[in-house]
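Quick note —
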Amino acid sequence: MSNEADKIKARRRFLTGMGVVATTATLATSAQAQQSSSGRRGFTPARHEEDSWMDAIPGSHRVFVDSSTKPGGVTAMNYANNLMVGHTTGYAGEESDNAIIVCFRHASTALGFNDAMWKKYSGSFNRGLGFNDPNTDGPFETNPLHMEVSRFVNRGNTIQSLIERGISYCICNKATQSLSAGLARGFDGSADEIYQELIQNNIDGSRFVATGVTAATRNQEYGYSLLYAG
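Predicted structure written out below.
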């Protein structure tokens, strides 16, 4: 009996000890979580005048649609449309509830320029697009995002039609400089002159940002969700 009683007491001490260990571990985890949460709450990103335009766009739902390829730039237009359709049909909201920015950077930068530039630099601008003008079956001589045909890849979501629905655009300035240098080699011109020409011929409703990747990160500091289109 004595041996059995000793075993019972030992088992009770073991279980009690496990309870203490578990409680201690739970408290430690809770403390770490609170400390981590407190650290996040205590972080306030710096504000810069160059980013203030993001905060000025009206809307209770903020989304930044990023693109870095020409096909991705077209997809970004469709995503912007779908975001608004999803909100109006699924949540009984208004399109004006959305603050949406579409970004053209890296290889999609050419989509940020108007028809005059697409006509002048058609060969270079069409490179990497992956499809031809359905009206001519040849290279585009106008910005493909001006195509209003619903069966086309942008499904009729044009630059202007999305502006009218509240969409904003931004274009990578650094990529524009790189594009200008490439065009200068192909057209035997001055990179600076071509750059000046391009920045005066951006699409309606757009602005240049220092770099697209900076805008794609800074927007999250202003409460935007980041959506990558390709």
